[in-house]
Amino acid sequence: MSTFNTSSPVPIALPAVVLTGRGTAAVGGPKNFAKSIQEGVRLATLRKPGKDAGRLTKLYPAGTAYLWGATPTDQTGNRKALALATRSAGDRVLFYAEGEIIAQATILDCFDNEDLATEIWGLDAKTGKTWKHIMALTNVDEFDPGLDSGPILIPLIGRRDVRTLERRTAVEFARVAHLLEREADDPAGLLVPTRTDAGHGEVVQTVRTAYSGTRVKRDTKVSARVKEMYSNACQVCGDVMYALDVPRSIGAHIRGLGAPHNGPDHISNILCLCGKCHAEFDWCTFHIARTPTGSLAVFDTLTRARRGDLRVVEGHAIDERYTRYHRDWCLDEAARRKA
């Protein structure tokens, strides 16, 4: 059993961040966002996936892809060129539109495919170019209502709007990442929690509101309940994060709420994790599985070695359907990386 430290702060591991605009109606931004991010692109309907057909099938075995692209730049060394050259799997993506951050996602892969981009999004009427620099995304999570872009973007790029694709380092992103933490307390009333009512232990479908697609709405009280159970101590490593001397933790969904996972917002699908373990869990560095003796343990995804026990307190019933889903997703992801 791990030893749990409840006083020492630990470093927070965060990804780099890519900033992109949704685009205006004049260039088809809202329509393209609804089609390829909110609804997703059905692989079976694509006529010209070309060389990336196999890649897309591996990335999205369920058959629906979540893609976003960028048009090429003729310049070298500018912010867009640098972002295109350095963006990579694991980066967070923030979507900007009309003074708000409207969604976030995680990059699974990046590739260039002009024919595929033209089929999905057509051509930019102003430039005649298509958005061929494609990001394959997962854990798509929309903010409803959107978040004021100022407090997030000004520390990152010095202004409130995103005018071109940009990328910032993990160190820079760390300054504002807490503003995007949807499981955190919501004293400003930015979130509108809505969910179905069900007894403890039941499978609960997350309430979603139609708005040119599907928007996830989280119940912050559910996450707060799990974090309170563990006094903000990470269930994996036992550490407690501190921000300005305030203990902090993250309510991590085992089967993600966002597309393509569509898991439930329920106590049986949530872990209390520190920032470092949350990042590793999202990146499939480790997964949770039942041991022969019946306990839940943490296993390294690549080596399959047991890293330690998962701390589970009385009253926190974790549904194994979600741990199995995450385990299978991690093992598939590891297999894709080796292929």
Account of the protein in words:
By secondary structure, this protein is an alpha+beta fold. The protein folds into two domains: 152 residues, Roll (Sulfate adenylyltransferase); 131 residues, no CATH class. The chain has nine helices and 17 strands. The strands form six sheets. The protein has a six-stranded mixed β-sheet. The chain has a three-stranded antiparallel β-sheet with strand order 15-16-17. It has a two-stranded antiparallel sheet with strand order 2-3. The longest helix is centred in the last third of the chain and has 19 residues. The protein starts with 16 loop residues before the first strand and ends with a helix.
Oligomer: single chain
Strand content of the residues, in percent?
25-35%
* Uncertain regions spanning at least 5 consecutive residues: 1-12, 183-215
The SSE order reads EHEHEEHEEHEHEHEEHEEEEHEEEH
Q: How would you sum up the major sheet? A: 6 strands, mixed
Structural topology:
Blueprint: E1 17-21, H1 29-38, E2 41-42, H2 53-59, E3 64-65, E4 67-70, H3 79-86, E5 92-97, E6 100-112, H4 114-121, E7 133-148, H5 150-157, E8 166-168, H6 170-173, E9 208-210, E10 214-216, H7 220-229, E11 241-243, E12 246-248, E13 250-253, E14 270-273, H8 275-282, E15 286-290, E16 296-300, E17 306-309, H9 320-338
Parallel strand pairs: 1-5
Antiparallel strand pairs: 1-8, 2-3, 4-7, 5-6, 6-7, 9-10, 11-12, 13-14, 15-16, 16-17
